[in-house]
Amino acid sequence: DKDKYDQLPRFRPISGVENNISLRDGRKRYLSSIIDISHQGFMLKFPDSEFMKRPDGVLDEAKSFEFFMFFDKVGFIHGNCDMKWSEPFGDDGYVAGFQISKVNPIDTENLKEALKYYFRLKEEREIL
User: Fold this and answer.
1) Phi and psi dihedrals of 9, rounded to 5?
2) In which region does residue 34 sit, left (phi positive, over 0), alpha (psi from -120 to 50) or beta (all else)?
């Protein structure tokens, strides 16, 4: 749930860094941008509601995806993730939280390197 998600240390992308991520669910590819990220998951912003709609037009809440990220110094990061929550954002967009469910050890190391080079800790979450 979102409350548990917000308790984990999160990192924001450094301004000017290309922070796009591609999700695939077997039928379609969805492009989004990273709002924040951790070793366990990420929050993404989707520009339109097509991401959340099934072919019958109903919003789809529980999905698993394959994800792909790329960073210059690090390379590709690939794995699987599960959507844990979503909510409307702006006129037609959505934000959604994802938990990483499967990633190989090399991609885990690449994720750690990407966090080091391209992201900064969200400090306001860590101050008690």
Assistant:
1) -60, 130
2) beta
Contact 54, 60 (CB under 8 A): yes
pTM strictly above 0.85 = no
Q: The tokens 């989004």 sit on which residue?
A: 32
Exposure string for 101-125, b = 16+ CB within 10 A, e = fewer: eebeeebeebbeebbeebbeebeee
Exposed/middle/buried for 68, CB within 10 Å: 0-12, 13-18, 19+?
middle
| Residue 59 per-residue DSSP state | B
pLDDT digit string, tens, across residues 25-75:
877 888 999 999 999 999 999 887 666 665 554 445 558 899 999 998 899
d(CA 118, CA 54): 34
SS3 33: strand
Element housing 111 (H / E): helix 105-118
